Amino acid sequence: MIYKTKNPKVRHDPRTDCLIWLQCQSGEYGSKWCPTRKRMIGAHRWMLERVTDEQIPDDMAIDHLCRNKRCVNPAHLEVVSHRENRNRAIAHIRAMEEQQAA
Ligand SMILES: [Zn+2]
After folding, report:
1. Which of 7, 15, 30, 33 is least crowded, fewest Cβ atoms below 10 Å from its Cβ?
2. How far does residue 76's CA lie from ligand 1's centre (Å)?
3. How is 39-97 classified by DSSP, letter by letter?
4. Cα of 70 to ligand 1 centre, how many Å?
5. Each residue's pLDDT tens digit, 25-67
6. pTM, to two decimals
7. Which residues contact 67 (CB under 8 A, 6 or more apart)?
8. How far is the CA of 102 from the centre of ligand 1 (A)?
9. How distant is the alpha carbon of residue 67 from its chain centre?
10. Residues 6+ apart with CB under 8 A from 82
11. How far is the CA of 101 from the centre of ligand 1 (A)?
């Protein structure tokens, strides 16, 4: 799925197809005010909820398949458990280390 947006808060990267969040940022992630929760949430979470029209439980993590933490392209995001997300992050770091060692 390729999600095109006219939303001015994002910039499309034609090389990776990432949608880079340009507005508010919290740490490495984009962030957005959530009126339902009355607090800031990850911009990627907000975008995914907007597209799917479903609230993602707070105890679920969102994995950036493209490894770009500021990306909010729903096609690059997958809802996973925190355990799965951590395992994937560790696997990614190991792969990067092996690549550097080679
Ligand atoms: Zn992306």
Report:
1. 15
2. 5
3. EEEEHHHHHHHHHHTSPPPTTEEEEETT--TTB--GGGEEEEEHHHHHHHHHHHHHHHH
4. 8
5. 888 999 999 988 999 999 999 999 999 999 999 999 999 999 9
6. 0.83
7. 92
8. 26
9. 8
10. 59, 60, 61
11. 26
